[in-house]
């Protein structure tokens, strides 16, 4: 494995992390949009500004994640020296295994960060009757489980 390959793996892992983290924010954004549409016009301009900022943030991070994943080799050429393509580097594993480990960590972090909040809001659902937070956290847990369960397949795909 060349030194430039390590850069490629790191850039692609960053892109995957941004993609998973941003997709996990989508249910919250959709809930916010639904609440904004259903709200009265009292705080419409403030909520409209927040919706615009959150929407643009979501779009920017998705575009950045896709750019990092799709143009990994181009970014690597920008960041590395020509000697990095010839210099060998030893790693403990192949690219596919590194992607699998990274996906397991990303999914695990998403699960560990979401499950306590999900359980708290699920417990308080009876008294508060706020289903949107429970649905949003449930969607994040689903994305985390999918990331962990399909880590080998996704790792093989991204290692290409």
Automatic annotation (TrEMBL):
Transmembrane parts of this sequence: 9-30, 50-71, 97-120, 132-151
Domain of life, per lineage: Bacteria
Keyword tags: Membrane, Transmembrane, Transmembrane helix
Name recorded for this polypeptide: Uncharacterized protein
Protein species of origin: Mucilaginibacter oryzae
């Amino acid at each position: 494995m060349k030194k430039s390959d390590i850069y490629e793996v790191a850039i692609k892992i960053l892109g995957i992390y941004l993609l998973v983290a941003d997709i996990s924010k989508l249910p919250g954004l959709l809930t916010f949009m639904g609440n904004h549409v259903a709200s009265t016009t009292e705080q419409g301009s403030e909520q409209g500004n927040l919706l615009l900022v959150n929407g643009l943030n979501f779009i920017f991070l998705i575009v950045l994640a896709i750019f990092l994943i799709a143009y990994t080799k181009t970014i690597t050429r920008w960041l590395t020296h020509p000697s990095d393509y010839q210099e060998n580097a030893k790693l403990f594993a192949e690219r596919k295994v590194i992607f699998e480990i990274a996906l397991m960590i990303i999914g695990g972090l998403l699960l560990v960060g979401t499950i306590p909040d999900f359980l708290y809001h699920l417990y308080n659902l009876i008294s508060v009757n706020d289903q949107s937070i429970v649905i949003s956290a449930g969607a994040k847990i689903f994305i985390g489980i999918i990331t962990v369960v399909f880590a080998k397949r996704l790792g093989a795909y991204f290692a290409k």
